[in-house]
Amino acid sequence: MTSPPTSTPQQSFLHRHLGPSAVEQQQMLRTLNLTSMEELLEETIPASIRLPQDHVVRSLPPNTDEQQALAELKALMGRNRTSRSLIGLGYFGAVMPAVVRRHVLENPAWLTAYTPYQAEIAQGRLEALLNFQTLICELTGLPVANASLLDEATAAAEAMGLSFAVCKRPRARRFLVDRNVYPQTMGVLQTRAEPLGIRLEVNAPSAFVFDEEVFGVLLQLPDGQGRLRDPTELISAAHACGALVTVAVDPLAQVLMAPVATFGADVAVGSAQRLGLPLGYGGPHAAFFATREHHKRQVPGRIVGLSVDAEGRSALRLALQTREQHIRRDKATSNICTAQVLLAVLVSFYAVYHGPAGLEAMARRVRRLTQAMAIALAQVGLPPALKPGFDTIVVETPAAANILERCRTAGFSLRVTEDGKGLGLSLDERSTVEELEQLLALMAPGRVHPPMAELLEASRGELPVPERHEPWLQQEPFHKYRSETALLRYIRTLAAKDFSLIHGMIPLGSCTMKLNAAAELLPLSWSSVAELHPFAPVEDAQGYRVMIRQLQASLAELTGFDGVSLQPNAGSQGELAGLLVIRAWQASRGQAHRRVCLIPTSAHGTNPASAVMAGLHVVPVACDPQGNTDLKDLQQKAAAHSDKLAALMVTYPSTHGVFEVAIREICTIVHDHGGQVYLDGANLNAQLELCRPGDYGADLCHLNLHKSFCIPHGGGGPGVGPIAVAAHLVPFLPGHPLLACGGEQAIGPVSAAPFGSASILTISWMYLRMMGATGLRQASAMAILNANYIAHRLEEFYPVLFRGEKGRVAHECILDLRPLRSEAGVDVEDVAKRLMDYGFHAPTVSWPVAGTMMVEPTESEHKAELDRFCDAMVAVRQEVAAIASGAMDRHNNPLKRAPHTITALTADSWDRPYSRQQGGLPGNQDPAEKLWPAVARIDNARGDRTLVCTCPSVENYAERSTV
Fold first, then answer.
1. pLDDT tens, 146-159?
2. Given Cys at both, which of 20, 70, 263, 557 links 24, Cβ 3.0 to 4.6 Å?
3. Is residue 641 within 8 Å of residue 669, measured between CB atoms?
């Protein structure tokens, strides 16, 4: 990051990232009775924390244009050595079908959608996720699967948490773990078990001791050494003592194996990475989680379920767990509030592309190649130490180091066993006869063996465990789209049902749906970014390591802190990691008894959930009528718990959308009572280069790179939630068992990969390089201007619930819709659905205050779009007035019947007391440009009562088609 800017203002990325032009900015400022942007910032941000206008960020050079930034990053990532990885350990070579890469991974219609809270305009990604859930249920034999989790290690930890939560025996705190689970999984389990008082007992499954203190078991099939064993007897023994059994299973092996449910498994977890996802130096990847019907209400994350709409048609929506943290808070079963949606969607299309026959052929070929390779190795004097179970071979030889180096020189990466005496290699769908011949020549030079093709021909590919015999994955989507023409049309059909940033503004408060520029996303397709194993030798990842160091330095300086960990692969994981770091620091001072966490009642619901998972006791702090933290209550709570206070979790700007003037005082109060200040960085988009958490008293914050730093939301994931910490906390940043990272007194890993979802860090690197510090300051200021412009335009029609000391909001505002209920019987949900008819995705609904809308326009939306949104909101308010006056029926009106589908508008009959135009095309919209809701309003309650989370069978489809 050293080159000077080379672009003119017209070519500058900054001028394309910001929505309003210079002329429009002046128009908006005049509307607010302001003369300059600086005047707005003075009225918005307390002077005591505001950075000077000439603040210098040493780690960021001046902004540059797209081509220069891409050239610099390409040169940097070119320093990576992308060998053919056979390391395995849960990460494998995979081939994403070109049609899927082209039409999903590189398609902004899929990339820029958000979590499907408004299901009527999210039916496409919901169907793709239902396909994913169906795939997982069919693979594992378990009836309930979620819409993905962050990674396999996290999924295993969540399974441990579920098993612990449902156990009703007070003394049951032992969790038995197969000693051959993947090392990264073991590390995350250890990190997550200690705060909850869970005792991990790691042993060979044959040595497990079951008694009433055991609540759960974790097995790995195949295990870290590649072994496959029938676990039926062991699972029966676990059940006899009342324990639940989780099996971490490889999805490609599960294609051939009998479903783990037939062995008795209660939970199945794993990574779907090898089903078409690039290695990406660790992510992002989609994990899976499936369980029995009895535990469906304890499942972490999201579940897509089937319901019906107001017109009686099948419709999909998020079920059960939708934003449950915001309702249950410290009683939530998990702090995970999203999923790896984009990755799960890619996996679902991979399964649709191959179908069950293609997946079985692929799995059988991998197994046959493994058998053939094992025979060949034995014949050249390198007999496998264990009988290969599915795809992995381990050989023990004194020549391990020499073999490793020869293979490495030739472009292959193998795994060294923990004792350093053996080598492991794991085959995958990219493995070929020719590749294995080359490997044999490298591993045993000059030794003769039968041709690999002959050995492959003789291999039957049988497994050492019961195999799958019943037909599976018979649902229509996995059989209907065999040609590429059919598949690309299916992908296009689903994309056309979803609202994303290609259609219009998504003004979701606290979610920051800003531009995800094409130049930021291009590097994801480079092999130097996509094809590196997370446990590759350090010398192979020099480009990644430099890019990571540069990003860490920039994020640290932008937040005013001294160190950054990029490992957390979601905001929820950043919260947990941050609190664990605080706990470790407190313990290092002999203060391990500090377990109280103060949390304002306005906080994100993940905050209290994370605190409980970190072993802390949540004490809520009240907010005053202006939405600020109640200083008197904070002082009283801090004093009352002074000897036990660990931390305060505070969001800034506040969850109510204002810069609290007393933030320094808040931090001082907590510090005076021995606590640390954790700042939730969800709203950092209003702060970059305007103020810094480390300057005004915070000790640590997490950052949402998928919000403030342009990683696309992908329909609800991937995300990245790094933590930035002050100097005294740096030694405790998360480590990893397989790669040196973190601090000298590191807490354990919180994610499977050392640097989390490393490949998408390139997006944020590009954003920072193209924006520079000056650009970031302008972006933050523009976000504040856009929000205040909307608040000003709408305050006559909807009261703005909270404002700062000088009447300004931050980067978002909360509109109070509660009066509409008493005035006209209209709820906030009615307005949200009606906005679809006007061509908009609704803002955040009923959070943090029930009956309100939180609006965040971001800096990327231009004035015309802001005005279009305001015009729509004003028009809706006029419709409400018509209902209140009696001009519209109180129950049969455009708001209560919204959204209006094209099917309803083109039906032969129309039974509504308003015109079709008024119902479906209000505001003189062009019907050709409108994203029509795929379904009418969905019955959410019915969906929860009768949860269906898999595709209908072929028989169901047949029955439906004959009705």
1. 999 999 999 999 99
2. 20
3. no
> Residue range 239-250: average pLDDT?
97
Supply φ then ψ for residue 137, to 5 degrees.
Answer: -60, -40
* Domain covering 57-78+524-771, topology: Aspartate Aminotransferase; domain 2 (3.40.640)
pLDDT of 589 higher than 90: yes
Amino acid at residue number 701: C
Task: Locate all alpha helices (DSSP H) within 429-531, ordered by sequence.
Answer: 433-443, 452-458, 477-480, 484-495, 518-521, 527-530
The neighbour count for residue 819, using CB atoms within 10 Å, is: 13
pTM of the predicted structure, to 2 decimals:
0.96
The structure tokens listed for 590 are 């002999």
307, containing H or E segment: strand 303-308
- Give the integer Cα–Cα distance in Å for 212 and 340: 36
Angstrom distance (rounded) from CA 602 to CA 94: 44
CA distance 750 to 150: 11
Superfamily of domain 355-458: Aspartate Aminotransferase, domain 1 (3.90.1150.10)
Q: Give the E-state strand segments of 169-272 in sequence order.
A: 174-178, 199-203, 214-221, 244-249, 267-271
Q: Return the closest-CA partner of residue 780 out of 873, 660, 677, 659.
A: 659
**Strands (E) located in 778-851:** 813-816, 844-845
Q: How far is CA 799 from the centre of its chain?
A: 34
Q: What is the DSSP string of 229-252?
A: ---HHHHHHHHHTT-EEEEEE-HH
Q: What gap in Å lies between CA 810 and CA 817, rounded to an integer?
A: 20
Q: What is the DSSP letter of 255?
A: H
Rg (CA), the chain: 28
Q: From 3.40.640.10, 3.40.190.10, 3.40.630.120, 3.40.30.10, which CATH number describes the 105-350 domain?
A: 3.40.640.10
List residues bridging with 287 in a β-sheet.
149, 271
Residue 120, both tokens = 């009527």
What DSSP string runs through 278-328?
Answer: --GGG----EEEEE-GGGGGG--S-EEEEEEBTTS-EEEEEES-TTHHHHH
Residue 248 identity (one-letter amino acid): A
pLDDT tens digits, 725-775 = 999 999 999 999 999 999 999 999 999 999 999 999 999 999 999 999 999
SS3 868: helix
Residue identified by tokens 């730093």 is 709
Per-residue model confidence (pLDDT) at position 323: 46
Answer yes or no: are the C-beta atoms of 890 and 942 closer than 8 Å.
Answer: no
pLDDT band at 956 (very low <50, low <70, confident <90, very high): low
The pLDDT of residue 2 is: 47
How many other C-beta atoms can be found within 10 angstroms of the C-beta atom of residue 289? 31
Contact 222, 391 (CB under 8 A): yes
Q: How far apart are CA 64 and CA 765, in angstroms?
A: 12
Fold identical between 105-350 and 355-458?
no
Tokens (6 digits) for 487:
């598949």
Look-up of token digits 């890619």:
346
Q: Are 382 and 394 contacting, i.e. CB atoms less than 8 angstroms apart? A: no
Q: Using CB atoms within 10 A of its CB, is residue 916 exposed (0-12), middle (13-18) or buried (19+)?
A: middle
Closest alpha carbon to 226 in 433, 467, 425: 425
- Residues 6 or more apart whose Cβ sits within 8 Å of residue 30: none
Task: Tell me the average pLDDT across 604-623.
Answer: 91
SS3 at position 423:
strand
The residue extents of the domains of the chain are 57-78+524-771, 105-350, 355-458
Q: How many CB atoms neighbour CB 147 within 10 A?
A: 35
CA end-to-end distance (rounded Å), the chain: 64
Task: Provide the 8-state DSSP code for 863.
Answer: H
Distance CA 387, CA 371 (A): 9
- Tokens for 257? 């194996």
∠ CA 839-843-849 to the nearest 5 degrees?
Answer: 150
Give the phi and the psi of residue 101 in degrees, each rounded to 5. -60, -50
Quote the DSSP letter at residue 169.
-
